[in-house]
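In the current project phase, the collection of sequences with tokenised folds has grown. A representative record is quoted in full directly below:
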Amino acid sequence: MEVTLEQVRDGLRAARYITTGRVETALFLALTLEKPLLAEGPAGAGKTELGKVLAEMLHTELIRLQCYEGLDEARALFEWNYQKQLLRIQADRAEGRTWEEVSTHIFSREFLLERPLLRAIASARKQVLLIDEVDKADPEFEAFLLEVLSDFQVSVPELGTIRARERPVVVLTSNRTRELSEALVRRCLHLFIDFPGPEKESEIIALKVPDLDVHLRTQVSRFVAGLRKLELRKAPSIAETLDWARGLCALGVRELDSAMVRQTLSLVLKHEEDLRKVEGKLGALLAGATGRASAPA
């Protein structure tokens, strides 16, 4: 795909996606070399958003395959529409057609239910295929993906081989809950996406929650950065930071204090054990966020 690095940067800005030069370069190379991009990193760091932004940037459809344990080829690739086939068989038999005539009808594209992988391959235009949280799928499904991503074609026994007319732009994401196979990693360009630092997250808040006070925006980003340094069950995602910022904005808050943090922190932390852990460190976290001496918890 012919695209320049500057066009990628401009496209990301137009899609309101704040990122780094390393991410911009990885996207540019994935588009230019037509190789799948594997984005790894902690949950909530913006990996899935990358696929959405790419689709917006390229003015095309996002086709998303959400992976989970037990995902199989039928759910990812295609299924036959058995109910529709049965109705057609009954209608053809009523008209006295032979099985050879019936089978020709029911095993045609008309009766094929395209799942995400086949939709992306069979599309007449270039699509963005997001294979989300591939680390949650079984290793056997990962092996199946290798074939699809290598040749961008699938075989349907009754129809033959279906080849991609336009090779899709592929983004795979992984939260690193397990190691992916070397064979899959080798076929992809690799990108690690971590949580942004306070300055970068403050920029994201400014873009997504423009009504939030500038001073409070800085405090929120610093406070969340402090939370992510703790050993929590679940570190706050960027989306949860934005939820907190929107909540504080709705409440008319202009300064973080311990009372307001306690009332609203459930927008950021979703586990009671994490909230209890933060309670004892609230003074130090507020001090780091506001730049003042450690406040009483």
Remarks:
- The two ends are 55 Å apart (CA to CA).
- The chain is about 50% helix and 15% strand.
- The chain has three domains: 5-77+116-192, 79-114, 198-288.
- The chain has a mean pLDDT of 88.
